[in-house]
Design a protein that fits this description.
Elements lengths: L16 H13 L4 E4 L1 H6 L8 E6 L3 H10 L22 E4 L3 E5 L1 E2 L2 E2 H4 L3 E6 L2 E6 L1 H7 L11 H8 L9
Parallel strand pairs: 2-4
Antiparallel strand pairs: 1-2, 3-4, 5-6, 7-8
Length: about 170
């Protein structure tokens, strides 16, 4: 903003469960192909984890890209309008900073939406049907070198062996 001192950084607040439900409802209404990955998917799988954003693995066809961009126009600052068609594919993460942060990814640990769509668990969240990463997909997308992704062996064993707990399609 023009009235802010130079160099001051704006921060977003952590997303709420209601933010996730509203976002998913807008994405569903627009026919967007997406999967909630990251912190919210880990929480939904039954693990305690704080998260500062909502991570989405998205399908990157021109039609889905247009649907996604249209769906995100509900956010107050309309930051999505700064993103051009096809740009999600060009970056590792596209961060949409509004009241809360949404990270859009064409790939998560090298997996595309098409690679991952058979590993979706649907959950009802505040009356909205949301596609979350299944435990097996979480396992595959958490093969990183970040400290917060270095789960204990017990949790890793549970995630890698718990597909029988999934709500696949």
């Amino acid at each position: 903003m023009d009235d802010e001192p130079p160099g001051e950084i704006e921060f977003t607040r952590p997303p709420t469960d209601e933010d996730l439900a509203i976002l998913a409802g807008k994405l569903n209404e627009a026919g967007v192909k997406y999967i909630v990955v990251g912190g919210y998917a880990i929480i939904t799988a039954g693990f305690a984890r704080a998260t500062m954003d909502i991570d989405l693995l998205v399908e990157t066809s021109p039609q889905n890209d247009a649907n996604l961009r249209r769906a995100l126009e509900y956010l107050p600052d309309k930051a999505i309008l700064e993103l051009g068609p096809g740009e999600i594919e060009r970056y590792v993460v596209v961060r949409i900073c509004e009241d809360f942060t949404i990270d859009l990814m064409a790939k998560a640990c090298g997996l595309t939406y098409e690679d991952a769509e058979g590993m979706i668990d649907y959950h009802d969240h505040h009356g909205v049907r949301i596609p979350f990463a299944s435990p097996s997909l979480l396992w595959k997308t958490k093969q990183t070198y970040r400290d917060k992704d270095a789960a204990t062996p017990r949790i890793k064993v549970f995630i890698s062996g718990s597909d029988n707990l999934s709500n696949h399609r």
